Amino acid sequence: MASAEPYWRYSIPVSVIWAVIYVIVLVWGLVGNTIVASVIIRTKKCATDYFLLNLVVADLMVLIFCLPATLISNLITRKSFHFVPKFPAHCAAFSVFVCMQKHSKSECESKYLLVKLHWLQIQFCC
After folding, report:
1. Does residue 65 form part of some domain?
2. Which of 8, 9, 27, 114 lies 20 to 30 Å from 50 when distance is taken between CA atoms?
3. What is the mean pLDDT of residues 54-79?
């Protein structure tokens, strides 16, 4: 008879160290990105601010969705939960997709505004 695979990948002290490190990164990222977002929201002045806010939102999505799932997949053996190995990859792909959609939208809006401003300058100068 084959022996059953252990539930935890590492010993309990090592798992606790991993969890503490992940929690520190999660809290540090949430606090830092929240501070950056609040400053950007209060002082929106140019298109770069929107770009930075977009990066903050994307980073928060990765922190909230991917980091806990990655911790679980690092601590628990693969055969314990069948969905865990794929879940962090799906979360990361979703975060990247949303970020790229927001970048595309902001890029299209900025190009539209540049063309519109250029057209208005041509009309008023002539």
Report:
1. yes
2. 27
3. 80
